[in-house]
TrEMBL record:
<dbReference type="Pfam" id="PF04101">
    <property type="entry name" value="Glyco_tran_28_C"/>
</dbReference>
<feature type="region of interest" description="Disordered">
    <location>
        <begin position="395"/>
        <end position="415"/>
    </location>
</feature>
<feature type="compositionally biased region" description="Basic and acidic residues">
    <location>
        <begin position="405"/>
        <end position="415"/>
    </location>
</feature>
<keyword id="KW-0808">Transferase</keyword>
<dbReference type="GO" id="GO:0016740">
    <property type="term" value="F:transferase activity"/>
</dbReference>
<dbReference type="InterPro" id="IPR007235">
    <property type="entry name" value="Glyco_trans_28_C"/>
</dbReference>
<feature type="domain" description="Glycosyl transferase family 28 C-terminal">
    <location>
        <begin position="273"/>
        <end position="342"/>
    </location>
</feature>
<protein>
    <submittedName>
        <fullName>Glycosyl transferase</fullName>
    </submittedName>
</protein>
Length: 415
């Protein structure tokens, strides 16, 4: 890292950590960053956190003390036109230009010790590039790229990695790469044949599974089976199949629809729930962990967070993965199913198939009949120590006077 000069303002005494999440679709990325923020603050309350995201719902998630959220103008993905402004008119370039200015200004003013970038090294449309250049030139911030366990199929991931020149971007701007997974389950370094230049900076944190529990309590009463469809933007088929399923005897159903579920689908689900009497439909839930931990069984899409929550709970889980536009959920679900940790439903999503699985597992004790596989679920406990190490190293490096600066000062003093 380049040394800072004596004329720059003093570093704030409290440590500062920033998290960037692009969030063009769904809530998975911002949920992951909010969990990381909470883990860092819980480990050291003397920390200020800035969370930068394109998801307005970030402000409604459980956030730790001393955390502020900067919400960026939203970007959406149209099935035919591709990425563009979600609210404004114009092009992707128009909204990226505004987002880039907000990011650069916020990070320049916040001056974090550590910046953790989720998944996309340069952000949407390269929007992080000005900020990363500034931070690297100032030399006072350690930059980390955080990756989920699976990016996509190896063919797609390798092609996109090459097209985005991710290796050279990492070499230029990032000190470390954190993989939020267990290499014994899925090793992207091997699966995607990433070079030693990336591997030498990579740390496997373990899955962000355990440690998500909050003070929120789950609903009591009749035992229930749970259905999760992530943000809901592509969960209509699963939601409607679950809502039409014959539930196990003695159980009711709880369906968390997600904030992005199409309104027409949501209305149909509420109408059906009102007629059935044994089905409860919820929209956005701030903290889904207690619901998962108290469910008799969980049917869920295959997003990273949902899978981590089911694995950590020990509850029987049926993953119904998305297969397009990315196969990430399918790859993850099949790998975990091969290890006997979860079941997976591929193909037609019907009430009969969902109901047959629920009837089989709903009365099982948690973990019964499943092999004990030593999967690392303690990433949230491990990340704070990684942050501590980077903060210590960065502050030590920038507190050492640059010999060139000293020589210039001595020359001025004797001139």
């Amino acid at each position: 890292m380049r040394q800072i000069s004596a004329v720059e303002p003093a570093r704030p005494p409290r440590r500062r950590v920033a998290f960037y999440s692009h969030d063009t679709q769904g809530l998975g990325h911002v949920r992951r960053t909010s969990l990381l923020a909470r883990a860092v603050v819980d480990a050291d309350p003397d920390t200020d956190v800035l969370l930068l995201s394109g998801a307005r719902e970030a402000t409604g998630l459980p956030l730790p003390e001393r955390t502020e959220v900067v919400t960026l103008p939203r970007v959406g993905k149209h099935p035919e036109r591709g990425y563009g402004p979600r609210t404004w008119g114009g092009t992707l370039d128009d909204v990226v230009r505004v987002r880039s200015g907000v990011l650069d200004g916020a990070l320049a003013a916040f001056r974090p010790d550590v910046l953790v970038v989720d998944k996309v090294p340069l952000g949407v449309g390269g929007e992080l590039l000005p900020a990363l250049r500034r931070l690297r030139n100032e030399g006072r911030t350690a930059c980390v790229l955080g990756l989920r366990d699976v990016l996509d199929t190896p063919e797609v991931a390798v092609r996109e990695w090459r097209e985005q020149r991710s290796t050279s971007v990492i070499e230029r701007f990032f000190d470390e790469v954190w993989v939020y997974g267990d290499a014994r389950v899925y090793d992207p370094l091997t699966e995607y044949a990433l070079p030693d230049r990336v591997a030498s900076r990579t740390v496997f944190t373990g899955y962000l599974g355990r440690g998500r529990t909050s003070a929120t309590t789950a609903p009591g009463g009749t035992p229930y089976v749970l259905c999760l469809v992530g943000g809901g933007q592509d969960g209509a088929a699963l939601a409607e199949a679950f809502a039409a399923t014959t539930l196990p005897a003695g159980h009711r159903g709880v369906l968390v629809a997600g904030p992005y579920l199409p309104e027409a689908t949501r209305d149909r689900l509420h109408d059906l729930a009102a007629r059935r009497g044994d089905l409860e439909v919820r929209a956005f839930v701030r903290d889904v962990v207690p619901l998962v931990e108290s469910a008799a069984a969980v049917v869920t899409m295959g997003g990273y967070n949902s899978v981590c929550e089911v694995l950590a709970s020990g509850r029987p889980g049926l993953v119904v993965p998305r297969t397009h536009p990315r196969a990430e959920q399918l790859v993850r679900a099949c790998r975990l199913a091969d290890l006997g940790l979860l079941d997976v439903l591929v193909g037609a999503i019907t009430p009969e198939r969902v109901g047959a699985w629920l009837a089989r597992v709903a009365h099982e004790a948690p973990g019964r009949g499943r092999p004990e596989v030593d999967v690392d679920l303690d990433g949230l406990a491990r990340v704070p120590a990684l942050v501590d190490r980077l903060v210590t190293a960065t502050r030590a490096a920038t507190s050492t006077p640059d010999p060139r600066v000293q020589q210039e000062e001595e020359h001025r003093a004797t001139a």
